[in-house]
Amino acid sequence: MDAARQVFSEMRYTHARVQDVTECAGFSLGAFYRYFSDKDDILFAIVSIYFDQAYATTFLGARYDPSNPMQSLRKSTVQTIEFSMENRNLIKILWETSQFNRDIEEQWSELRSRIYRKIARLITRAQEDNIGCPGIDPIYTAELLTCMTEHAVYRKLVLPSKIPAREPENLTEHLVNLWARVLFLPQVWQPVLAK
After folding, report:
1. What is the CATH number of the domain that holds 16?
2. Under DSSP, is residue 193 helix (H, G, I), strand (E, B) or coil?
3. Cα separation, 18 vs 33, whole angstroms
4. Quick one: 5 and 79 in the same domain?
5. Mean pLDDT across the stretch 49-59?
6. pTM above 0.85, yes or no
């Protein structure tokens, strides 16, 4: 699977062959077919692990605290950016293959839906605690903000061949700023963002 990630990244998924993967891994074609039926099958296995890790990483230890919601927002944003940096090549493969592989697109959509629902619950809690911006639809807002974040990560951290050293930090700060201004009342974010 590591060899497949490397080969798919270097050659692009559409150009890579199973033989390229086995040569990179130092295995025979027969060994490959003992575990996977084809190139799509190994990609699906790789992506399944990635999606589970992506969901877990986004929210790991970033517990909502109504007395300090900016802390969990910052933590989840930092974790998302770091995870994206570590998986840049796989994210490129995802964007490529989701255009024509229905299984990958459906699995990615399911991950997105899980994330939207989790964020929507947090937005609802913030509104109930009178620190969240009233009048915004939690699920719709979660979807829009997540799509913005996903696309910004792709444009700023995945597509470029060379990323400026401060780009991950700059992107993190801008995302935290935007999310905070949409999700929370000014008294929540103004003291933190003014620093």
Report:
1. 1.10.10
2. helix
3. 9
4. no
5. 90
6. yes
